[in-house]
Specification:
Blueprint (H helix, E strand, L loop, with lengths): L26 H21 L3 H15 L3 H12 L2 H12 L6 H17 L4 H16 L6 H4 L8 H10 L15 H7 L2 H6 L9 H17 L12 H5 L5 H6 L2 H14 L6 H24 L3 H11 L3 H19 L1
Helix pairs in contact: 1-2, 1-3, 3-5, 6-8, 6-11, 11-14, 11-15, 14-16, 15-16, 15-17, 16-17
């Protein structure tokens, strides 16, 4: 036991400069220069560019990064697809622009999005904004099987456009996910709405919450949710061994729907069509949903989900007996 006379643990103040405080000789600039030099040299070797281009790009990009490493990684990913022309695009956008720090990060993000989607057809915009909106407002990242069911997506084309166009700001993997929260902040900012109005539907939270609510409820209303959905045998239950629960974990869309349908529903305006789907789920699928929650180890979350669902005005009117009764049973 420490004596009360012991002095407190000594601490040291560490100043990490960024933005206009970053100087060329700072370690942050040195690290960013080393990172960009490695990436640019690789691009130059693959594209047949001269060393002079690498030095020109370095001398321009490092000060612009202003000590923000996410800026450097984003610009490297952006240039990788077509280095020389895309560097020209950046130079053109910077002429007469003295903004620094996160303002300049937003300018970079704007250039990335505009360059990626300026030539897409208008009919493809709905799919692109649906995918990007779901990436922002979903409770967990969704896989392609879920995203492709969203309105306006309909095919792999919108997913491919997003993957290819935003390769510098999304994680490379089977599930679309922005690799830095600052890009989501950018998509929801007034700057984005002003600079990229054609994609402003990304910011329409009501629209995306409704789409996600419909996605979840339609999934639960479908044959995907049925009696003994986990395929349990009597012997499994008797021996408290539930291997089939692992199979259910692979059903990403059904798992997501069963967990988050209420979260999206309560942010969705009441409408007749949606109310009918909710009513069907509550009266025809409720026990199957409870089975899923139990098999996935979330039975105690079911009470909280139903409590959230009861905040949707129409639910009390159309399904009060099923939903409220089940809530009381679980809560008790």
């Amino acid at each position: 036991m420490l004596s009360p006379k012991c002095s407190p643990t000594p601490s040291a103040h560490v100043n990490i400069p960024s933005g206009s405080e970053v100087k060329p000789e700072d370690s942050a600039s040195d690290d960013i220069r080393a990172f960009l030099k490695s990436r640019l040299n690789k691009m130059a070797n693959e594209s047949g560019l001269q060393d002079a281009w690498v030095m020109k790009a370095l001398n321009s990009l490092v000060p612009r990064a202003a000590g923000i490493f996410i800026w450097a990684t984003t610009v490297a990913g952006f240039l990788e697809q077509n280095p020389e022309p895309r560097f020209g695009i950046l130079e053109e956008g910077w002429r007469g622009d003295n903004e620094e720090g996160f303002d300049d990060l937003y300018s970079l993000y704007s250039t990335v999005v505009r360059t990626s989607f300026e030539k897409v057809y208008k009919k493809e915009i709905e799919g692109i904004t649906s995918v990007m909106g779901a990436m922002i407002f979903s409770k967990e990242p969704l896989n392609d099987d879920a995203l492709i069911v969203l309105p306006g997506v309909k095919s792999q084309n919108a997913l491919q456009l997003v993957r290819r166009g935003l390769v510098s700001v999304i994680d490379s993997g089977p599930i679309l996910h922005f690799h830095h929260h600052s890009f989501e902040d950018f998509l929801l900012s007034p700057f984005f709405e002003q600079e990229l109005h054609m994609l402003s539907a990304v910011q329409d939270r009501d629209r995306h919450e409704r789409q996600l609510a419909v996605l979840c409820l339609n999934t639960m209303a479908s044959s995907a949710l049925h009696f003994n959905v986990c395929g349990l045998k009597t012997s499994d239950i008797r021996n408290r061994d539930i291997p089939a629960a692992d199979k259910f974990a692979n059903s990403h869309l059904l798992s997501y729907s069963c967990q988050f349908w209420a979260d999206h529903l309560v942010r969705t305006p009441c409408e007749q069509t949606l109310m009918e789907v909710v009513q069907f789920v509550m009266y025809e699928k409720l026990l199957f949903w409870m089975e899923v929650m139990s098999a996935s180890g979330r039975v105690y979350e079911a009470t909280l989900i139903l409590k959230r669902a009861l905040a949707w005005p129409k639910l009390k009117a159309c399904c009060s007996l099923a939903c409220h009764g089940t809530y009381l049973m679980l809560a008790g």
